[in-house]
Every structure is written in C-alpha cells, then in structure tokens.
Amino acid sequence: MSHPFRADFPLLVHTDIAFLDSAATSQRPECVIQAEKEYYERYNANPLRGFYDLAQEATARYEGAREKVRAFLNADSAEEIIFTRNTTESINLVAWSWGLSNLKKGDEILITISEHHSNILPWQMVAQRTGAVLRYIFCREDGSYPKEEVEAAFTGKVKLAAAALVSNVLGQEGPVRQMAKLVHLNGGVMLADAAQAAPHMAVDVKALGVDFLAFSGHKMLAPMGIGVLWGRKDLLDSMPPFLRGGEMIDSVRQQDATFAELPHKFEAGTVNGAGAEGLAAAIDYLSRAGFDRIGDIELSLTRRALSGLQAIPHVRVLGGTTAEEHHGILAFLVDGVHPHDVSAILNEDGVAVRAGHHCAQPLHTHLGARSSTRASLYLYNTEEEIDRFLESVSSIRRKMGLG
Amino acid sequence: MANTFYNEILIDHNQNPYHKHPLPGANMTLEGVNPSCGDDIVLQLRVEDGVIQEGSFEGDGCAISQASADIMLDMIIGKPVEEAQRLSALFLKMIRGGCSPEEIEELEEAGALSDISHMPARVKCAVLGWHTMEEMLKGKKQPATTES
Ligand SMILES: Cc1ncc(COP(=O)(O)O)c(C=O)c1O
Questions:
Q1: CB within 8 A of A84, min separation 6: which ones?
Q2: Among B60, B61, B122, whose Cβ lies nearest the Cβ of A344?
Q3: Which residues of A are catalytic?
Q4: Measured between alpha carbons, how far is A307 from A312 in angstroms, rounded to an integer?
Q5: End-of-domain residue from the set A216, A240, A258
Q6: Which A positions 321-380 lie with beta carbon below 8 A of chain B?
Q7: All domains in chain B, ordered by first residue
Q8: Same domain, yes or no, for A307 and A393?
Q9: CA-nearest residue, atom 14 of ligand 1
Q10: A191 is a domain residue
Q11: A303 near A295, Cβ under 8 Å?
C-alpha cells in the first residue's frame, strides 16, 4: 500500500531503519529542507536591520513566518509570537522574566509530576531565587490526573501553574485547561508546554485559556534551532526583557536603554531567519496533511503497537491501557532487561527508540521505574515498522538468556 | 537478523554474576556511577600485602556494566595490585580500539567486550567497573563517575 507521506521524507527514503523516536525530534520533509536552503540562496540578509531591498525581503519573510505561527495557534496578534530556539528557551524566558519579577516568598508554583525537566528546572530556579514554593500534582499510575485531585492541589497561594499538554513519557494529556481556570481564580498565570502536542493536534491558545504556551519546531517537522513562545500581550508588555543586546531596543544611552515594542523586545541579537522560514514550511505541510488525517494514521499505528506490546509476556507499557491515551508515545519496560540493553537490541534489528528517563526523572521515580524504553511515532511511520519493532521486542528476553 | 553484540559470555555474566554479593571483610569500598545510563555499582576489595585477596560488587545497571564488572573481578582476584592496574590499562586500550589480537587474547573473557569500541554510547557502561577500581586503588573516597 502506498503511504501518503513517507516519500516526502528524504532521510526515511534513504535509510532502512524504523525511526520510532519522533518524540525526541521528528524527521523533516523535503519542502522544509528546501525552504531553509532557499532562504540562504535567495533571501539572506540580517532580518530587521537594513534598509536595502534584500534586507527588507528577509524581514518580510521572517514576519510572514510569525504571522503563520499566529494563525497556527489562533492567537490574536503576531506581536504575541516570540521566536526562540526551542521549548526550553521559551519556558526559561517566562521563568526569568515573568517569574522573577512577579513571584515572591509565600507564593506557590504548581506543576505536574509528569513534566519534562525543561518545565521543572526553570521553576526550581525561580523558587530558589524568590522564596516561592514549588509544588507538584501527582498522577495516578495510568498517568491520569483526576479532577478532584487537581482541584485539591490548588491553594489560594498558587500564582503560577505549568503543565504539558501531552506528556513526553506516557503520552497522556495533562490537566491544562482545568489548571488554567483554577490559577486564574487566584489572579495567577498558566503556562502550557505544547512540545509534544503541537506536532500532533490543533493547538488553540484561546480555547485552552492559558497565558503562555511554548513549543519546539524540531519536533513538528521544522529545523532544529527554532521554537516559539506565545504569551498574552498584556503580560508580555509588562515583562522585562530576558536577553539584552542588538535590535531589541528603542534607544540606548551610556547607562540605560528603553526597549523595543513586542515581539522584538524578546528577540535580542540576530534571529534564526532560515529556521523561521523552515517552520513556516512545516506549518504549511501539516495543514495540507491535516491533523484529522495525521491523527487517524497515528491512532491506528499506536493501536497496533500497543496491542502488540500488551500481548508480549514480561512487557509492561507505562501509562494508560488504550491507544487514545498515548498520542503515539509508548514507554515500556521489559522484565529483567535494562532499557539501554532493550534499545541496543532494537538497534541491532534496525529500530531506533529512546532509552533512559527521557528528561522526566521525577515521573519515573513516582512510577517506581528508574528508566524506560520509549517508542514514539509520527505521520510517516508504517505498519511494517511497527511489526519489526514488535518482533524485535518479543526476541529480547530470549536473547538476554531469560527464556 | 543482525548479529547480536550480546554474546554468550556477556549474557552469562549478566545473568549469573559470580561476584555480586556483599563482602564483609572488605578494606576498600567505592561507589561508581555512570550518569548517562544510570548504572550504579559499589565495588569492594580486600587487599592485603599488595594482593587482591577478595572482591565483589553490588548495585544495578545495564547488562554491559554488570557483566563487565563481574568479568573484571574474575580476572583480578588473586592478582597483585600492579597486575590489576596493568590489565585495567589494557582493557581501556581495547575499548578505545587500540589492542592487537594478542593483547585481546590476554584479556581472556573481557575480550568479549572488544566490540564496544564500535559503540561509543556504551563505552561508559563497559568501563564503569574498571574505572571504579582504578580510582579506588588511587585512594579515591568520593564516588567515581564515568563523566570526568
Ligand atoms: C514535553 C516536552 N517539553 C519540553 C521539551 C524540551 O524541548 P527542547 O529540547 O526542544 O527545548 C521536550 C522535548 O524533549 C518535551 O517533550
């Protein structure tokens, strides 16, 4: 059967490996690779600096990409779209800028135990510097967050709440909408980490009711080195700059400066013009493919992989028992075999998966596992790849002398 | 199916580690960690008159780290400290891909790990036991890490 998307991905066409590590970074379609190349071949000048035609063109393309991201997120204004390097930088921007200037001793920061380290460490830093307390909401063993427990975790002191829309280990959706409502009752703000959501589903910042949202281009078909922070305009306006330097100013005197308007206030230094161009091409590709169609492919592959894993003795899948709860992410354990050996054997069979704690050590500790092996898929994967993966997993215990 | 790196020697030492137990008479103890894999072992030796009289390890980690530590103890127990250090240097040389076939022969069962030289991601697992022993014999007291 011909696959609707696979032929668009040069790396997948040129290799025999079953790439099941898209939660770490996706592959890129030809059109994205071309867009980045074309930027350097035809439009390259330093965006936002220079009055000659070529620089104007580079600027227009960069701002065009920003508009594309605005529409992708259903945001009100392109001024609310800040280009960063990745999710990590986006969350750090909020922590250093909003966090340090708005939180104080006695306040609470509330996050979930399933966060990626990128959505934990910046808040540890804010807590250490401001005297605010960092607290966690704990998930059930299946990764779910029952409504009553989320509600019970909200004291009146919570001024910042943050959670991932989709967990990078369990694939479960986090209680983002509910946390946003509850933190607003305290006059606080909510940050959503959309790193694992933006590649797979429509993300609408207004429908979510959050105040900040972060994602990385490289997990959604775009080049590495371009990411996004969306923030509500009134909040971004009130925040101090994160990094300081070129092209983020209004005027500079010897001892002080006034800063540029949004979004440039938060984009100090030369920007990633080619990356933005690639991100725009990735957004176009995803909208042509359509999240409905992408979701159908992913769900059917996830079902195949999940039911296959569930049928293998001594294999335990972390998180929920239905494919709908996984969003293409399956972390699992093989009794008696260390995840690094599991991934090494899969590698010998031409299957690429991730092993370790996947930058979510507190979650693994909470679930009583030191680490796990994670298979994660995307729109370009095939049934044959899932079958190869399952066959290899079934051979692991035998290969390790465990019968 | 591709040839597996997980050969019989490795599997056997991982499944039935002969030296994985406490060592009440130990006079040297050092923890060794490999942060990239999460391997974490405690190595214990009883050294008297410059000779390694007894040795053991405990802890957990991937098959490579566990088998490598067990094989190492097989080789060094009963040997003078200098000889253990010489074997350790030879082992590290093999892992870096620099050993002649004769030298690999000299490493006995540890030679089963020679293919690690083609697997950079697993080098730290293989050297954990050996590195921990070297640091211990140098008198180190803080946990040894493969990151340095
Ligand atoms: C849920 C989640 N948040 C944050 C990140 C960090 O993304 P990046 O490394 O692109 O900053 C990741 C990626 O691994 C992730 O899965």
A1: A90, A93, A214, A226, A227, A228, A229
A2: B122
A3: 359
A4: 9
A5: A216
A6: 337-341, 344-345, 348-350, 356-357, 370-371
A7: 2-145 (3.90.1010.10)
A8: yes
A9: A24
A10: yes
A11: no
- A302 token code pair: 């996830």
User: Which of B62, B64, B68, B124 has the highest number of chain A CBs within 10 A, making it the mutation to test binding with A?
Assistant: B62
Separation of A376 CA from ligand 1 center, angstroms?
14
Q: A317 has which bridge partners?
A: A332
Residue minimizing CA distance to atom 12 of ligand 1: A195
Tracing tokens 């697993």 back to the chain, one arrives at B122
> Is residue A78 within 8 Å of residue A66, measured between CB atoms?
yes
How does pLDDT run across A107-150, given as a tens digit for each residue? 999 999 999 999 999 999 999 999 999 999 999 999 999 999 99
**pLDDT of residue B2 exceeding 70:** no
- Of A244-258, A336-350, B128-142, which gets the smallest average pLDDT? A244-258
Helices marked H in B17-61 — which ranges? none
The label of the residue with tokens 């370790």 reads A356
Given a contact cutoff of 8 angstroms between Cβ atoms, the answer to whether A227 and A189 are in contact is: no
- Which of these, A333, A337, A334, A374, lies nearest to A353 by C-alpha position? A374
Chain B neighbors of A352, CB-CB under 8 A? none
Q: What are the phi and psi torsion angles at A273 (to 5°)?
A: -60, -45
Interface test with B, best of A341, A389, A393, A394 (most B CBs within 10 A): A341
Please check whether residue A279 lies inside any domain of the structure.
no
Instruction: Collect all residues from B whose CB is shorter than 8 A from any CB in A.
Output: 1-6, 11-12, 14-15, 37-38, 60-64, 119, 122, 125
Name every chain A residue with its beta carbon within 8 A of the beta carbon of B118: none
* SS3 of chain B: helix, strand, coil, percent, to 5: 50, 20, 30
Closest C-alpha residue for ligand 1 atom 15: A195
CA of B136 to the centre of ligand 1 (A): 38
Which of A216, A245, A280 lies at the terminal end of a domain, its last residue? A216
Q: How many CB pairs under 8 A join A and B?
A: 50
How many Å apart are CA A376 and CA B128, to the nearest integer? Answer: 30
If you average pLDDT over residues B2-17, what whole number do you get? 86
- Could you list the residue range(s) of the whole structural domain that residue A362 is in? 290-399
Among residues B63, B77, B86, the alpha carbon closest in space to that of B23 is found at: B77
Q: Do B4 and A341 touch (CB under 8 A)?
A: no
When divided into structural domains, chain A yields a total of 2
β-pairing, A81-84 vs A227-231, is: antiparallel
Query: Taking CB atoms and an 8 Å limit, are A356 and B37 in contact across chains?
Result: yes
The strand pairing partners of A83, in sequence order, are A228
Using DSSP, state whether A334 is helix, strand or coil: strand
Share of chain A above pLDDT 70, in %: 100
Q: pTM of this prediction? A: 0.93
